[in-house]
Each structure stands twice: as structure tokens, then as C-alpha cells.
Structure to design on (88 residues):
């Protein structure tokens, strides 16, 4: 059985959302820097959810998701991750 690129994307996004979810629940956002980190992780989670929704909707409509739109979403996640690492 051949694993498609789309399945790898879905598994990656679900793992990213699970990791972000665990970090959000473990974090204590009382200080200013923790609040900023919380907001960045939450925005990464929302972007990942948006990409998953787009992939699901495309598959339900029996068409291939655009790699351009998913690439834009992944770029947004990378930018948020890098800004989070520079913030800490």
C-alpha cells in the first residue's frame, strides 16, 4: 500500500494540533511572555485546523487540495513557530 502525500500532511497536522493542545493546557499564561506564547501556539493550532478543514472539504468535493494553499498555511505555521522561538 502506497502512502500518499496527503495522508502524511494530515498525520503531521494532527500531531501538531495534539502537541499544541498539550502545551496550551500545561502553560500558565499569567505573565506577559507566557500570554504571548499562548497566543502564538493558539494561532498555530487554528492555522493547522484551517488546513485540515480545507483538505477535508476538498476531499468531500472529490478534488485534489491545492498545494499552493496548503503551502501558504504551512508557511504561516513556520513563521509563527520561528516567532515563538525568538520570543522565548
Amino acid at each position: 500500500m502506497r502512502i500518499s502525500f496527503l495522508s502524511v500532511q494530515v498525520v503531521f497536522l494532527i500531531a501538531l494540533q495534539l502537541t499544541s493542545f498539550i502545551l496550551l493546557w500545561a502553560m500558565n499564561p499569567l505573565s506577559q511572555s507566557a500570554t504571548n506564547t499562548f497566543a502564538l501556539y493558539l494561532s498555530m493550532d487554528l492555522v493547522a485546523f484551517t488546513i485540515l478543514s480545507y483538505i477535508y472539504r476538498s476531499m468531500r468535493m472529490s478534488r485534489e487540495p491545492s498545494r499552493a494553499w496548503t503551502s501558504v498555511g504551512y508557511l504561516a505555521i513556520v513563521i509563527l513557530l520561528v516567532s515563538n522561538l525568538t520570543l522565548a
User: Anything to note?
Assistant: Residues 5-87 form one domain. The chain is about 80% helix and 0% strand. The first helix runs from residue 5 to 26. The radius of gyration is 15 Å.
